[in-house]
Amino acid sequence: MSTAVISRRGMELLLYLAPVTLFYVVFLILPYLMVLRLSFFQFSPMHLYIPEFTWANYAAVLTDRFYLGLLARTIGLGLLVTLVSLMLGYPLALKISRAGPAMKSVLLAITLSPLLINLVVRTYAWLVLLGDTGVVNHWLQALGVTAGPLPLGGNMFSVIVGLVHICLPLMALSLVGVLERIDPALFDAAESLGASRGRVLRRIVLPLSMPGIGAGSLLVFSFTISAFVTPALLGGNRVTTISTLIYEKFTFSSNWPVGATLVVFLLVINIAVVILHGRLFRED
Amino acid sequence: MHNPSLDVSGVHVQYGGFTALRGIDLRVARGEFVALLGPSGCGKTSLLRVIAGFVEPSQGAVRLNGRDVVGLPARDRNIGMVFQSYALFPHMTVLDNVLFGLECRKIGRAASIRRATEALELVGLATLGDRRPKQLSGGQQQRVALARALVIEPDLLLLDEPLGALDKQLRVQMQTELKSLQRRLGVTAVFVTHDQEEAMSMADRIVVMRDGLIVQQDTPEQLFGLPGSAWVCDFVGAGNLLRGELSALGDGLLRLDVAPGSAIHVMRASTSDTGRIVQVPFHKLRLKPCDSEAGLLVTGRRFLGSIVELHLASPAGAVRAHMPLAEAVAFPVGARATIHADAADCRLLPEQ
Q1: What is the largest CA-CA distance in chain A?
Q2: Is residue B275 predicted with pLDDT exceeding 50?
Q3: Confidence (pLDDT) at A1
Q4: Range of the domain at A148
Q5: Domain membership flag for residue A37
Q6: From the CA of A223, how many Å to the nearest CA of chain B?
Q7: What is the nearest CA distance from B51 to chain A, expressed in angstroms?
Q8: Which of A237, B84, B121, B183 is the S-S candidate for B126 at Cβ 3.0 to 4.6 Å?
Q9: pLDDT confidence of B259, banded at 50, 70, 90?
Q10: pLDDT at position A246, please?
Q11: CATH code, domain carrying A218
Q12: Looking at the DSSP assignment, which residues form a beta bridge with residue B156?
């Protein structure tokens, strides 16, 4: 009888999960497999690609300093945006997690506001603000702070600003969720034992919020290294990341096999980060 | 009280528009074990938090060994505290939890480990130092919390419902242990509880609180034997409270006619005695079988081990009587009885 129950449960599970499984197989797994196959094909200027197996694309990416630099720069960008989001998001999340109900809703609404604006609209807003003739430079010069325009737009700086703007809510929310679950009596206990605020933060709050730091960093890093619109628009053709180069390979230079190889690299990095996160922040 | 360890005077606490404490005066002698007892919302936890330094009083003074500590942060008060949830640091081992207070005091590693190990030995957990709190039972966690609070050699030990999360059997065992440990170390201690049994079994003195005020403070024996009001009597379960018309019989003797055949006599202690409610301890109430309708109906009975508790309905209020099993067999549920008591065992109590 118990086996009948189990198999009925199994059937039920299958019924529930079949639609979403089908969706992901058709629209995610299969396209990825096609891209993977493409990355082993030969490039041909005439026919886009020739379906003959080769390691050449991987060899090209792994031996060319341009590609290696690009990989390093993209990972560096991911790390930097993650770090800045963490530095800005941690104090914010601490404040939100300890605020009263009214203050909490206000702070959360403000924190989430970047996610409520359309990606393209938000990005163009940054272009207007950060350009050479943009709002910020206009006022800096009008107020006599600077003589000429500062290089705020169309470079790494504006890309980082734009990415942090989107990533901050992801980071802050991950942290708030974890910080709120810490028993406030722990802070009282630490204080009654003689701990200063700094020590409470260092020895109690920080270690207990590591899962939030891990989850937030994972989200932000993966988002950043895969981001396309923000680096493409705010970088003003001067900032290249894996994503923008993939776009370029599939469109302008029409080198699909190398583009597909870069997609595989991006995917591998993301999977590696997820595995690393699982190792580092495993709950005991 | 000469040179008290803790001296709280005229303390008021307000949270927004709500007044949690309305003028508290409390002195605790060195080595004394005091219970703050009261229903939820009476202000006992607020008082504990004022003493600990987590809540600033809007008025009044708190002196610890003669030093005014109002305005002094909790971390500088050298008070050990045991929390209801234990508040053990989940990411640290048992030993690291106990070491934390010593680490804050910048005591050397070797000396710290020796002291922490001693503290763990004191509570019988010396072998579990490298476990995580999650791996311990509730009773063991409670002991770690105690060791962590004691290892800093506090001037005062505060305990917030320390045994509230334990099951009954363990609670009774921990009551005995906690009490003997406190006595052995001679540490001054204040604990908060809503459980009158727990207060009775551990405290040298019980401070009964209600609506932000102290309504009575006495030794458990005195509190139980001589509650100051009907409310305290009811809260600590010190006996029956009978309400009704009192008729004067002369020489200060009063009579309360509970029902035909059931009269309770009580002496008015002094002319200033304004009490209108008669207290009769459960074990002092005697029953006589009665066949007529005038007798009080036995509505229930409860075995309490060596004695039986009988419940009777009366016009003066529900009545309980404790008696040995051999006597109780005469009064099955549904039987009728008249109630009696010696005037010397009864007292008049005011409502509040």
Answers
A1: 84
A2: yes
A3: 47
A4: 64-280
A5: no
A6: 30
A7: 11
A8: B121
A9: confident
A10: 94
A11: 1.10.3720.10
A12: B79
Identify which of B258, B79, B56 has the alpha carbon closest to the alpha carbon of residue B152: B79
Handedness of CA B209, B213, B218, B221 (dihedral sign): negative
Nearest to B79 among A192, A195, A207 (CB): A192
Contacts with A185 from chain B: Cβ below 8 Å: 83-85, 87
A228 has pLDDT over 80: yes
pLDDT tens for residues A111-126?
999 888 888 898 889 9
Alpha-carbon separation of residue A34 from A39, A253, A256, A262, B6 (angstroms)? 9, 20, 12, 14, 77
The mean pLDDT of chain B is 92
Interchain pair B104, A194: CB under 8 A: yes
Phi-psi domain of B188 (left: phi exceeds 0; alpha: psi -120 through 50; beta: other) = beta
Residue A89's alpha-carbon distances to A76, A97, A98, A169, B41, in angstroms, are 19, 12, 14, 8, 38
Beta carbons of B102 and B148 less than 8 angstroms apart: no
Whether A196 sits inside 8 A of B104 (CB atoms) is: yes
Residue of B123, B135, B122 lying closest to B93 (CA atoms)? B135
Which residues of chain B are within 8 Å of residue A214 when distances are taken between CB atoms? Answer: none
| Ranges assigned E (strand) in A59-114 | none
d(CA A256, CA A259) in angstroms, rounded, equals 5
Look at residue B47 in the predicted model and tell me its pLDDT: 96
* Model confidence at B266: pLDDT above 60: yes
DSSP-assigned beta bridge partners for residue B267: B253
Q: Which two tokens stand for residue B76?
A: 């500088």
Note whether residue A10 is domain-resident: no
Where do we find the tokens 């190398």? Answer: A258
- Whether residue B81 contacts residue B49, with contact meaning beta carbons closer than 8 Å, is answered with no
pLDDT tens string B148-159:
999 999 999 999
* pLDDT bucket at A5, cuts 50 / 70 / 90: low
Task: With a cut of 60, say whether residue A154 has pLDDT above it.
Answer: yes
Residue A214 covered by a domain: yes
Contact B78 A186 (CB under 8 A): no
Q: Which domains does chain B have, with CATH numbers?
A: 6-231 (3.40.50.300), 240-349 (2.40.50.140)
CB B79 within 8 A of CB B155: yes
- Count how many domains chain A has: 1
Q: Within a domain: residue A257?
A: yes
- For position A4, what pLDDT does the model report? 57
